Amino acid sequence: MATYKIAVMAGDGIGNETIPEALKVLEAARKKFGGFELACTELPWNSDFYVKHGRMMPEDGIQQLKAYDAILFGAVGDARVPEHVSVAQTILAMRRGLDQWANIRPARLLPGAPCPLKDKQPGQIDFVVVRENTEGEYADVGGNVFAGTENEISVQSAVFTRRGCERIIRYGFDLARKRKASGVGKGQLISVSKHNAQRHSQVFWHRVFEEVREQYPDIESRFLYVDAACMDMVRKPETFDVLVASNLFGDILTDLAGVVVGGLGIAPSANLNPDRVAPSMFEPVHGSAPDIAGKGIANPLGSVMAGAMMLDFLGQDRVAQAIVKSVESVLSDPKGPKTPDFGGKAKTREIGDELARRL
Ligand code: ATP
């Protein structure tokens, strides 16, 4: 029987409330369906750790993480630590250090989830954004000179490599093919770019897209400029299947996608090392939410869905599906418990209990 070693980093704020619920549901699913073990290790690498040790994780933290099969991550963010430091030393360090080059964010409107768009029904919106996760506009290249003077200059360079662009675009096409084969997708891929305005890196991205698409004649592919993609995500998200985008564009598009299908409370995200040479990391899209942290009202569905994505990636797709079905069952039931962001009065814990019960 397979035993998966899971590193659990709940992090800060509501991560400490939502991740325990995800673990509760994962454990209940494991007990019910069997066939695998979960060996979870909680790693207290968060802002408290920073206050004590001057860093968010031990110096050899990334090395330690390589011993695990997957990482379940909550959120970081705390007034005591500058945000660019806490994010850089955890999320960005893992994405780069573990070469988690594909960021996958599904956007599916489930029955009972609040959709801010009028006339959109559950089942109509079902797409996935594939975001490049290790280079592009978020490459740590740049600097400031003449700091603090009126002559100050700031330069930040984007890095687009052939290898990086090709593998993420190919990942998008492969996913479109997989979704088509399993009957959930339209067999369609949209490359999101801005090659009309950025003459170098974006023209390069688009050229790589044009090359790769030649190898996928079975997939209907086209490009959208990022501004048009934002408009269409609001106007006609039902026309989307798989979108592939660079780091910055993907970041912005996925937050919009999350809101379109019910908000941060339910949005999960996977940071994949598709080559499987290092662990992948699964997290809810939301942050530490200091405004509601400690109140026990955070919606745990984003973390639960991230847990389901983790099981799916580990090869337990049947169990992952059961967790998703349980979420659908609670949401679509008018009497099912919901947290305040979904218009209910339930506590975080009650959602986890109910999901485990309905599995
Ligand atoms: P951080 O600084 O860690 O990014 P933030 O508050 O700036 O935190 P989010 O944590 O993403 O950003 O929260 C944005 C808003 O969405 C907040 O008002 C928060 O309360 C709400 N929110 C986020 N996640 C949840 C959740 N799981 N359940 C309910 N509300 C949430």
Give the termini distance in whole angstroms.
Answer: 22 Å
Q: Could you state the CATH homologous superfamily of the largest domain?
A: Isopropylmalate Dehydrogenase
CATH architecture type of the largest domain: 3-Layer(aba) Sandwich
Unique bound compounds: adenosine-5'-triphosphate
Helix content: 25-40%
User: How many structural domains can be distinguished in the coordinates?
Assistant: 2
Tell me the radius of gyration. Answer: 20 Å
User: Strand order within the widest sheet?
Assistant: 2-1-3-12-11-4-5-10-8-9
Shape: globular
SSE topology sketch:
Layout: E1 2-11, H1 15-33, E2 36-42, H2 47-53, H3 61-65, E3 70-75, H4 83-97, E4 102-108, E5 126-132, E6 136-145, E7 153-159, H5 162-181, E8 188-193, H6 201-213, E9 220-225, H7 226-235, E10 242-245, H8 247-260, E11 268-272, E12 280-284, H9 301-313, H10 317-332, H11 348-358
Parallel strand pairs: 1-2, 1-3, 3-12, 5-10, 8-9, 8-10
Antiparallel strand pairs: 4-5, 4-11, 6-7, 11-12
Helix pairs in contact: 1-9, 1-10, 1-11, 5-6, 7-8, 9-10, 10-11
The structure holds adenosine-5'-triphosphate.
Question: In words, what does this structure look like?
Answer:
The protein has 359 residues and is α/β, with parallel strands linked by helices. It folds into two domains: 1-110 and 264-359, 3-Layer(aba) Sandwich (Isopropylmalate Dehydrogenase); 126-260, 3-Layer(aba) Sandwich (Isopropylmalate Dehydrogenase). Helices cover 40% and strands 22% of the residues. The protein has eleven helices and twelve strands. The strands form two sheets. The chain has a ten-stranded mixed sheet, sandwiched between helices. A two-stranded antiparallel sheet has the order 6-7. The structure holds adenosine-5'-triphosphate (ATP).
